[in-house]
Design a protein that fits this description.
Elements: H1 7-14, H2 17-21, E1 38-41, E2 53-56, E3 61-64, E4 70-71, H3 73-81, H4 85-96, H5 107-131, H6 138-146, H7 151-156, E5 160-162, H8 168-175, H9 180-185, E6 189-190, E7 199-200, E8 205-211, E9 217-224, E10 233-235, H10 251-257, E11 264-265, H11 269-277, E12 283-284, H12 293-302, E13 307-310, H13 314-327, E14 338-341, H14 348-365, E15 368-369, H15 370-379, H16 387-402, H17 407-425, H18 450-453, H19 456-459, H20 465-480, H21 489-494, H22 500-511, H23 524-534, H24 537-540, H25 543-546, H26 551-582, H27 588-609, H28 613-632
Parallel strand pairs: 11-12, 11-13, 13-14
Antiparallel strand pairs: 1-2, 2-3, 3-4, 5-8, 6-7, 8-9, 9-10, 14-15
Length: 640
């Protein structure tokens, strides 16, 4: 009997090999790592006492390092149960709940057809790759370079370019002898209803090949270069090769890397590419739609507890909330989800650019278990000041619990939700008396909210992140309001930047003879740095950048940011120089110098900051700390 294409792949994906082998062996749990799908046992094919028989759930294979027996779940059944191939298939199909396909005499013909379509897709991949090196692709190459993609990355992900011509790919493929009907069936060209010559589906776009877990190119994704394009991203249509709801971008490489790295589920192609390029090798993405049940099952086959990286906006959070409802009935002790909440208005690429690998790693480490995001969904932004509202909350939580089919897991969820509810409605008593729920009162969270923990200031390990962000807001405001540059030239000359890219852009701004053509008049490297800064999440939402029609607001913000930056650095410099003197001598002169430093800095900034309360408080805090150091005479060595 011939089996339809993909049936065996689906069968192997639905039944883990460890569940099949586990009926015949006793796992060595000291050597096995169940969470990673890595199992060891004495070999069932030869007599031994040590655990040399290895089963890899992710790859779906077993191997004995003693007798060298190897195979998959089907071959294991055939060897241990003396089954024929079809008997083994039928046994696994019953376990997976998959009906055996009816006899199809055309199965071989279908397999040949899929193979022919895959060959067309490979030919298109080669064409798109070659086009990326042409003059027409200059803008695309500049965009990719600006996003930090190296030549090695472009080659690794086989990124290409579709020329902005109606029939470039069509002419190439038909000229190579590929039948026109096959090109259309592969989703690469569109046949007009009037019977005229078909035209290319992808035109003027950066091309991302989409491969299945077996490595076959099954579809393409294209990013438009023109701002007037009807769709920024365009995917291949559904074809005999491509089912969007059953496919994941980067599934094959992520499966190989998932044993060594946490599996991250991001939103799109560029997020995956940025994560992989930064060393987070196990990253996948759905293809422009919400995660489907089939995709979720695929993700769980790669890792039992993947981390969903949600973009830091309302849409990203809504996607996470929808995924909760999809996942709850499918949860078990062996498969769950965690949620990585990114800073507001930021995606993984933004986080990596702004805070580096350390910031992304900390977000991953702080990922919330599903139950915590469920609780957040049902309580965030709401007031429970009446019995009816609290009862409605209880009803929603019961409905969520009832959707969990695993009874033992449902009990643990109920226990955790009861604990969260108790902490929410019955906060601890303070020294001034009880603080229970009252009209309009919501108990403060016991720990920092996810939205707070996920900000860049909280996720970075860098001590100077606040100063770097201040540099970025200054530069971005000047880029957004170039007419203010002459007014703040003196401040910009004094504000030496700590980041090399920021410093180069500062010099470029000071050197411009005419600011009217910003940012196009900047040198290439500085223009890319300017674009990077303007695309940062915390910059895009900054009022002086968003409100380009309000130069006075921008001027006030610049005055405040320059004042803070220069005041902090001035005090720090005086302290550093005074501390160096302290190591050599400690007398009244040093005390006088410290006091004068603080007073001079305050006088210098007082006129600029007199109408800005926050800055006065900032300056006062610095001066107060300095004064306490003076009074404590910290430089004097105490006798033991």
């Amino acid at each position: 009997m011939s089996l339809p294409p993909g049936f065996l792949d689906e069968l192997r994906n639905r039944v883990s090999i460890s569940s099949v082998v586990g009926r015949k062996v006793t796992w060595d749990m000291r050597k096995s790592n169940q969470a990673k799908g890595d199992f060891w046992a004495p070999c069932p094919f030869h007599q031994e006492k040590t655990a040399s028989f290895h089963v890899d759930d992710r790859k779906g294979f077993y191997y004995c390092f003693g007798c060298h027996a190897k195979g998959d779940a089907l071959s294991f059944l055939r060897e241990t149960e003396n089954m024929s191939f079809m008997e083994a298939v039928e046994t696994l199909a019953r376990e997976a709940g998959m009906p055996m396909p009816a006899h199809d005499p055309r199965a071989a013909e279908k397999a040949d057809k899929l193979g022919a379509l895959a060959e067309v897709m490979e030919a298109a991949t080669r064409f798109f790759r070659a086009q990326l090196t042409t003059a027409q692709a200059t803008q695309a190459r500049e965009y990719l370079h600006g996003r930090g993609l190296t030549p090695d990355t472009l080659a690794r992900f086989e990124i290409g370019f579709a020329p902005d011509a109606r029939q470039a790919l069509w002419a190439h493929l038909t000229g190579a002898g590929i039948p026109p009907a096959r090109i259309i069936e592969a989703g690469l060209a569109i046949a007009p209803e009037d019977g005229s010559t078909p035209y290319d589906r992808f035109r003027g776009r950066i091309i991302f090949p989409i491969r299945d877990a077996r490595g076959r190119c099954i579809a393409f994704g294209g990013r438009a270069m023109s701002a007037q394009a009807r769709a920024k991203y365009l995917n291949s249509p559904e074809t005999p090769l491509f089912d969007k709801g059953r496919s994941l971008y980067n599934a094959g490489p992520a499966r190989s890397a998932a044993g060594k790295h946490p599996l991250l589920v991001a939103e799109g192609y560029m997020d995956v590419i940025a994560l992989v390029s930064a060393g987070f090798e196990a990253a996948v993405a759905p293809l422009g739609t919400a995660i489907t049940e089939e995709q979720l099952r695929m993700i769980w086959r790669l890792s039992p507890e993947p981390i969903i990286a949600l973009d830091g906006d309302a849409a990203g959070l809504r996607a996470g909330y929808r995924l909760i409802d999809l996942a709850l009935p499918l949860l078990s002790a062996e498969q769950s989800l965690r949620f990585c909440l990114l800073p507001e208005k930021m995606d993984p690429d933004d986080v990596l650019r702004a805070g580096g690998n350390a910031a992304m790693r900390k977000l991953i480490e702080d990922a919330l278990p599903l139950v915590k995001l469920l609780w957040q969904r049902e309580t965030e932004g709401q007031v429970f000041d009446s019995p009816e509202r609290r009862s409605a909350l209880d009803k929603r939580l019961r409905a969520a619990l009832n959707s969990i089919t695993d009874g033992n897991l449902r009990a643990h969820y109920a226990e955790e939700l009861r604990s969260l509810r108790a902490g929410f409605f019955q906060p601890k008593r303070s020294a001034t008396g009880p603080r229970g729920p009252r009209h309009g009162f919501t108990a403060p969270p016991a720990t920092a909210l996810p939205s707070t923990r996920s900000t860049l200031l909280a996720t970075t390990d860098s001590a100077d992140i606040a100063e770097r962000m201040r540099e970025e807001i200054i530069l971005a405001t000047l880029l957004a309001h170039p007419g203010l540059l002459p007014r703040f030239t003196a401040d910009l000359e004094r504000a030496e930047m700590r980041s090399a890219g920021h410093e180069s852009l500062r010099h470029a701004l000071l050197s411009l003879p005419d600011t009217a053509a910003l940012p196009d008049s900047l040198p290439e490297r500085d223009r890319q740095e300017a674009q990077r800064i303007l695309e940062l999440g915390h910059i895009r939402i900054a009022p002086p950048v968003r409100r380009r029609d309000d130069p006075e607001l921008a001027a006030r913000c610049l005055q405040e940011e320059f004042a803070k930056l220069l005041a902090r650095r001035g005090v720090a410099l005086e302290l550093r120089e005074a501390s160096e003197d302290m190591s050599a001598a400690a007398d009244e002169g040093v005390t006088w110098r410290l006091r004068e430093a603080a007073e001079q800095r305050n006088r210098a900034e007082r006129s600029r900051l007199s109408d800005t309360t926050d800055l006065n408080e900032d300056r006062a805090a610095l001066s107060g700390a300095l004064q306490r150091m003076i009074e404590s005479e910290i430089w004097i060595k105490r006798k033991k």
